[in-house]
Amino acid sequence: MVVNKMRVGSRKSELALIQTNHVIGQLKKLNPEMEFEVVPISTVGDKVLDVALSKIGEKALFTKELEIALEKSEVDFVVHSLKRCCDNEEGI
Fold it and tell me: Quick one: DSSP state of residue 6?
């Protein structure tokens, strides 16, 4: 089966979308016929605005929902800033 469209998971923040579109641009240079659809995903870190993130107690505040989308095959890959990534025991 030939895949002509890739679903790309990204947080909805301006920086995340800039990074995602940059990666898509680079991939299009290598494979111009490929189409990409950005799938915006809200994370706990994006939603909780009234509590210091350090007090929430979740290590994957900005990545958990991205990982879940990958596991459920809702996206083909995700683009995320390395500074927010943490070690993942499941190997994602």
Answer: E
Strands 77-78, 35-41: parallel, antiparallel or unpaired by DSSP? unpaired
Helix/strand number for the chain, H first, E second: 4, 3
Mean pLDDT by 10 residues, the chain (92 residues): 86 92 96 96 74 65 88 95 56 52
The dihedral built from the CA positions of residue 14, 48, 85 and 79, taken in this order, carries a sign that is negative
Q: What is the CATH number of the domain that holds 50?
A: 3.40.190.10
Whether the full predicted model's pTM is greater than 0.90, yes or no, is no
Count how many domains the chain has. Answer: 1
